[in-house]
Structure formats: C-alpha cells, structure tokens
Specification:
The chain has about 230 residues and is α+β, with helices and mostly antiparallel strands. Helices cover about 45% and strands about 20% of the residues.
C-alpha cells in the first residue's frame, strides 16, 4: 500500500509516467477502506492468531480479504481518464475486461466498481484522486475460500456468518472456477497488460521503482502504514 501511494506521489510531481503494477500478498492480508474501522470490520485477534496482515488502504470501499488473487494498481493523470467517477471506473476496468476476454472469459463492468462473469463478481476495485492523479487498484480472484474469509471478517453471529458464506459462494466466482483449471500468474499479467494497452492506446515498458519511489515507500511504510495510528485511527 505504501508503494501505491509512493507511485501516486511521484506521478503527481511528473517524476514518473502513468504506471501499471501487479502484485500478490504474502502473508495473506485483510485491507480495510480509508473510512472504515479496523475493529468493527476485522476479527483482530483471530487475524493475528492466523498470521494474517491487516492494513488500511489509501482508497475507499469495504474490507477485502486478499488470498488467492492477483492485484493490480494503475496510477495515471486525471486527464487520461474521464472526470466522472463511474465513467473512470468503467474505462479503467475495461482493461481487466479485455484481458480476461483474451484468456477465454467474458466479463462485464458493473457500476459502481465491480467486474462480473455471468452475474457473479470476479473483481472488486477501489479508487482515490490526489494532486490531479488517479490511483485505482483492484483484485482478480484466482480462487475463493469463503470460510477462511469469514473467519477473519467480522460477522455478528454464526447464522449470519453461514448465510454470508453461502452468499459469497453463490455470488462470487474465480478464474479457476470459470476456466476449470489454475492459471499461470505471468500469463494473466501479460493478458491484463495487453488489455490495458488496448483501452489506453499505449505500450507499457517494463521497469523498476525509481530510487525516489522506493525512498518514499519506505518512509510511508515506517511512518504511516505500519503504525497503529494509521490502521486504527477510526
């Protein structure tokens, strides 16, 4: 999360170009949206017991359990996307839709910020805007373990928990479920990169974080994202 904010900061100063990044989570983690309360959304004791990380995002939205997934973040100038929030989500998410189509999955954008396959959610997305720059990141589900998810996300009681698990199993899908097999992460990254290239009519060049981005990310990690003040401020 510190890296995403560091890229946004560098982009707002025109120190780097628009940037597309892919990553996975180690260890498994729960992120909460900018405006949420960690203690209201997450079973903190259970999460610590299982060795699962907890972090507040810079973007809004709800609590997300990050396990079997590929996560992307795209940081771009506001002038390169629609000013309207939903339209900007639609354009950016079209990169995911295009990428999934190239591997044989027909998906569609569903406002405000989801991507679905046959009515079932396969990708959730969140966005923030700072200094004339949009940061949007989201998940592409490789597989789903609803029981594990709700062992750490707070649900009022067992009956509601069972209902929530069933609801996720019925309303959420994954690449493994749709393809009937596991997919190579690198192949998925290539497909999604090509999808974003089509939408924005650009050619991405592989690269590394700049020394400035690394320095900013390390500072943000130390002073912000790893602190109780940030993660528990609501």
């Amino acid at each position: 999360m510190a890296i995403d904010e560091a890229i946004l900061t560098a982009r707002s100063k025109d120190q780097v170009p628009n940037t597309l990044r892919f990553f996975t989570w180690k260890p498994v983690a729960v992120t909460i949206g900018f405006f949420q309360s960690m203690e209201q959304e997450v079973d903190v004791n259970k999460t610590r017991e299982l060795g699962i990380d907890m972090i507040r995002r810079y973007t809004g939205g709800g609590a997300v359990f990050h396990d079997k997934e590929l996560t992307y973040s795209i940081t771009l100038s506001e002038k390169d996307a629609p000013q309207d929030i939903i339209e900007s989500y639609k354009k950016i998410c079209a990169g995911i839709v295009n990428g999934l189509k190239s591997i044989g999955i027909d998906s569609e954008f569903r406002p405000i910020n989801d991507i679905t396959v046959n009515g079932k959610k396969i990708s959730g997305n969140a966005q923030t805007r700072r200094g004339g720059v949009i940061l949007q990141h989201g998940t592409i589900l490789l597989d789903v373990d609803a029981k594990k998810m709700f062992s750490v996300l707070k649900v009022p009681d067992e009956k509601i928990r069972d209902k929530a698990i069933k609801n996720v199993e019925e309303r959420v899908t994954s690449l493994k479920k749709e393809l009937g097999r596991d997919i190579n992460i690198e192949d998925l990254e290539k497909a999604l990169t090509a999808g974003f290239e089509q939408v924005f009519d650009v050619k991405f060049e592989g690269g590394e974080l700049t020394s400035g981005e690394i320095e900013t990310a390390e500072r943000l990690y130390k002073e912000k994202y790893s602190t109780k003040e940030w993660c528990y401020w609501r």
